[in-house]
Amino acid sequence: MPTLHFRGLDAGDRSVDAPLGETVYEVCLTHDIEMVAACGGFAACNTCRVRVVTGKLSEMEEEVEPPFLDRDDQRLGCQACIVGDATLLLDPGDV
Ligand code: FES
Fold first, then answer.
1. Which of helix, strand or coil describes residue 29?
2. Which ligand 1 atom minimizes the distance to the CA of 36?
3. pTM value > 0.85
């Protein structure tokens, strides 16, 4: 099973098991990682944003995520799915 490494959490860095195909948001819910999801995971805000430090996530749906992103290394945690090991930094937008 892939591993997601989270950096920059209030409680310090953390590594968790991340099943293939789950979203980053689902992994955070399972492991009580403090991701804000103001719209409930419907790609209508940017509070679940992460930066991909290493590794990769699923391919982006170009018509869904870009309006909520400011940088090339950002993804929406509620849309990006696990495809392998990755290191992420929580990078919420407007909360
Ligand atoms: S929770 Fe709102 S876009 Fe992901």
1. helix
2. 1
3. yes
* Mutation pick for ligand 1 pocket among 28, 39, 75, 90 (CB with most ligand atoms within 8 Å): 39
Sheet architecture: strand order including 74-76: 14-17, 3-7, 82-90, 49-57, 74-76
pLDDT digits (tens, 9 = 90+) for 1-57: 999 999 988 778 999 999 999 999 999 999 999 999 999 999 999 999 999 999 999
Do residues 85 and 4 lie in contact, with contact meaning Cβ atoms separated by under 8 Å?
yes
Q: Assess if CATH 3.10.20.30 describes domain 3-90.
A: yes
Q: Is the CB of 44 under 6 A from ligand 1?
A: yes
